[in-house]
Amino acid sequence: MNHSFADLPEEAAARRELAACYRLFDQLGWTEAIFNHITLRVPSPPGSAHYLINPFGLHYCEVSASNLVKIDIEGNDITGTGRQVNRAGFVIHGAIHQARPDAHCVMHIHTTAGCAVSCKESGLRHDNFYSAMLYGDVGYHEYEGVTTNVDERPRLVQSLGNRNHLILRNHGLLTVGGSVAQCFQRLWTLQRACEIQLAADAGAGPNREIPVSVLEKVPASRLKMNDSTKADGVSQMMFDAMLRRAGISRDAL
Fold first, then answer.
1. Residue 9: in which H helix or E strand, if any?
2. What is the pLDDT of residue 228?
3. Stretch 217-223: mean pLDDT, rounded?
4. 3-class secondary structure, 106
5. Residue 248 three-state SS
6. Contact 184, 153 (CB under 8 A)
7. Which of 34-48, 90-104, 226-240 is predicted least confidently?
8. 136/203 Cα distance (integer angstroms)
9. Contact 118, 172 (CB under 8 A)
10. Of 237, 221, 239, whose CA–CA distance to 229 is shortest?
């Protein structure tokens, strides 16, 4: 589901949703000390793109609705909070928010499974239940060092293209979505695909391939179960259930 700018939640609600997601990432172990980012676009003046990001120096368990920083695509602190933002956060996320109007949310992680698959020459194989769902929707971006150079932005955007999942070679995973919930479901699926691939590779014997003729049908058959509105609703139901399981309340953040 591609959300329009009119679909953007008002900023206070966006802050609660994003803060809850940071806390959920912490519960899932998808953290990397004080690094990595989840960003969410918020209403902004015409011709500009403002989004929320975690302040640099805080662990995900410390992120709250009130301490999220609103920045533009160049990393400028819009409301003058004085909080520092990690440069890689606006180099990567700002580029995607600017290039993809449908990418209201961008998530990037360095999980063990994701980083391990990103280091393999073959990348993600579409031979398990979850990776089959992603067939035709995974891009790859070559490693150019720590992502702090704005010159890398055009190549990053080109690597993603119109896809919703990106494997950063020798680096980690990234997904985009029209909402926090949609982006989360995509990242959860990509992460599970990587975990299962690593587990399968550790077992004896060859892995069983899925015929391309079947793979070509899987993404469409998955989406066919719901129309676009209901598909997004499923993402939200999943996200809400995960928050409840983790004991995370948006209103408490």
1. none
2. 41
3. 80
4. strand
5. coil
6. no
7. 226-240
8. 27
9. yes
10. 237
Q: Encode pLDDT of 42-90 as tens digits.
A: 998 888 889 999 999 999 999 999 999 999 988 999 999 999 999 888 8
Please, are residues 93 and 67 in contact by the beta-carbon 8 Å criterion? Answer: no
Tell me which residue of 159, 180, 131 sits closest to 13, measured CA to CA: 180
Report pLDDT digits (tens) over 97-145.
999 999 999 999 999 999 999 999 999 999 999 999 999 999 999 999 9
What is the percentage of the chain residues whose pLDDT exceeds 70?
93
> Is 252 within a domain?
no
Structure tokens at 66: 């009130």
- Whichever domain contains 39, its CATH number is 3.40.225.10
The residue segments making up the domain with residue 29 are: 5-246
pTM score, two decimals?
0.93
Helix (H) or strand (E) holding 25: helix 11-28
- Number of domains forming the structure of the chain: 1
Listed in order, strand segments (DSSP E) in the chain are 37-42, 50-53, 69-71, 105-109, 138-141, 165-168, 172-177
How crowded is the C-beta side of 119, counted as CA atoms within 13 Å?
A: 8
Q: For residues 144 and 171, give the distance between their C-alpha atoms in angstroms, rounded to a whole number.
A: 10
Q: Which residues have CB under 8 Å from 26's CB, separation 6+?
A: 59, 60, 61
